[in-house]
Amino acid sequence: MPDGSSRESITITALADLSAIAAEDWDSCACPETADGGRPYDPFSTHRFLRALEESGSVGPGTGWGPRHLRAANGAGRLLGVAPLYLKSHSQGEYVFDHAWANAWERAGGRYYPKLQGAIPFTPATGRRLLVHPAAERDVVEAALVQGAMEMAARAGLSSLHLTFCSEGEWRRGGALGLLQRQDQQFHWENRGYADFDGFLGDLASRKRKQLRKERETAVGGGVEIVRLTGDALEPAHWDAFWRFYQDTGMRKWGRPYLTRAFFDLAQERLRDDILLVLCRRAGRWIAGALNFIGRDTLFGRYWGAVEDHPCLHFEACYYQAIEAAIEMRLSRVEAGAQGGHKLARGYMPTPTYSLHWIGDPGFRRAVADYLARERNAVAEEIEFLLDRGPFRKGD
Questions:
Q1: What is the DSSP string of 17-56?
Q2: What per-residue confidence (pLDDT) applies to 256?
């Protein structure tokens, strides 16, 4: 390890936005695996994705997501690590639900917001939140980034710090550093080396296999055509259509869409190779779509919307098309986003997700720690219960 690996010699700097650091420098920590020309583990921590959120106004002034990204360097100024970090004035767009914590603390006379959030905005996808350069000492730099974030929160009088949808390794190491550990679950599909979608169906119990086939037939039974687009096959007109779908979903679920229209223009320009867009057309008109991001071994389902209601079309566009695409691209899994017990019947199995939390007030911290211990036990029991009730043939 070069000189500068010790905690005492690491300097932590806050960045007001991603323009303050070169893309190649950020990505040398966020996705060093792309140095061989491959894909990043996930596109969400890359400079191009996070910068698109900022440039499009999806995060920044007026959104409740104020960038405060961290940069760790040694005494010689050599980059050791980075971390996406935001000053949050609400809990929206995080998908780790701490509203009850906020209500409890404010009823007790405290001020929960603003808080610090180590996260990818609007993206409940598991990934690293403490991005360490591969030539640096991981544990030392992670600890320095955590300490720097806690010190920032304490100096500003903030209630808390949260690292959400972090990796399991970060979760375990963060717990050893004294952070509170939270556990939840999502539903992910695992590729068992299937040659095609029929191979996946062959793994299901007979009744479930018939159900899925029927749902796929129903989805396209009204003359619906489904296409998958990525890279240069994506055109601005496709984003015009998807924006209509996204607006409809955003207005109904969140009150307003999280992403601005400008984000999709930047996605066309900079992110199209990271994207798989599923679009549904009937009578020559785009009527529905699902947006996915392509990782090194995972397809990440993100957004769905429609301007016409068709039975089972949501299942087809979001879940079955994703499975089919993952098999064709030889990806290991599909992460289908937050919540959704209905995914279980469609081959998406319960999978733990992780987050880390620092609470400044000792009394509030003890109360949250007690709650999290009980919640972790409940989540583990639910995962075990659901695993026994999946759609796969028994014995597999």
A1: SGGGS-HHHHHHHH-GGGGGT---S-GGGSHHHHHHHHHT
A2: 75
